């Protein structure tokens, strides 16, 4: 199954459109939210991350893919992730499967994988997030809220596709 794991704020801000700003984005999150996201990433059977978001999430000790047009990402040798440029192959492998394959960012990947996602885990920060990228396409009535967990620093909402 394909699942999106998204950190956002009440304005649906999810990050910045520049790699430089995203590099420090994750470290700027509330520590409890950072921990929750790392746990979600590590408990998934595999992940896909975009090349800009990849740098902000290091170290990331997980198998999966960095979706990029280049196989020369400077951090790939330090990771178990492989470069991939074909979204169709990733979707075909994980759509309808029993494994828990997580899309962990950024905005382009969320938009590309949303039509294929069975589950959304939305981590709403209690404080505004910096950045100019928004993700609100999930809020179109295609998903039902099935669980909501309130913690210090964030609220996690799990949604299943209708």
Q: Could you explain how this protein is built, in words?
A:
The radius of gyration is 15 Å and the shape is globular. The protein has 162 residues and is α/β, with parallel strands linked by helices. It has five helices and ten strands. The longest helix is centred in the N-terminal third of the chain and has 13 residues, at 31-43. The chain has a single domain (2-161), classed as Dihydrofolate Reductase, subunit A (3-Layer(aba) Sandwich). β3 (46-50), α3 and β4 (64-67) form a beta-alpha-beta unit. It has an eight-stranded mixed β-sheet with strand order 5-4-3-6-1-7-10-9. Strands 2-8 form a two-stranded antiparallel sheet. The mean pLDDT is 82. The two termini are 14 Å apart.
CATH class, please? Alpha Beta
In CATH, the topology is named Dihydrofolate Reductase, subunit A
Question: How does the helix and strand content classify structurally?
Answer: alpha/beta
SSE succession: EEHHEHEEHEHEEEE
Radius of gyration: 15 Å
Determine the number of helices (DSSP H or I, runs of at least 4 residues).
5
Strands of the largest sheet, in order across it?
5-4-3-6-1-7-10-9
Shape: globular
Question: Number of DSSP strands?
Answer: 10
Rounded mean pLDDT score: 82
Task: Bin the strand percentage.
Answer: 25-35%
Biggest sheet statistics: 8 strands, mixed
Total of domains: 1
Low-confidence stretches: none
Give the full name of the CATH homologous superfamily. Answer: Dihydrofolate Reductase, subunit A
């Amino acid at each position: 199954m394909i699942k999106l794991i998204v950190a956002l704020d009440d304005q649906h801000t999810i990050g910045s459109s520049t790699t430089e700003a995203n590099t420090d984005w994750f470290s700027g999150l509330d520590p409890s939210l950072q921990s929750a996201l790392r746990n979600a990433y590590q408990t998934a059977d595999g992940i896909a991350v975009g090349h800009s978001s990849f740098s902000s999430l290091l170290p990331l000790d997980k198998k999966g893919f960095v979706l990029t047009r280049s196989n020369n990402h400077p951090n790939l040798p330090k990771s178990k992730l492989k470069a991939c440029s074909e979204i169709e192959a990733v979707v075909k492998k994980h759509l309808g499967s029993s494994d828990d394959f997580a899309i962990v960012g950024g905005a382009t990947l969320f938009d590309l994988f949303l039509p294929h996602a069975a589950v959304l885990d939305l981590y709403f920060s209690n404080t505004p997030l910096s950045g100019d990228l928004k993700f609100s396409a999930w809020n179109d009535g295609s998903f039902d809220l099935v669980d909501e967990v309130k913690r210090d620093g964030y609220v996690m909402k799990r949604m299943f596709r209708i």
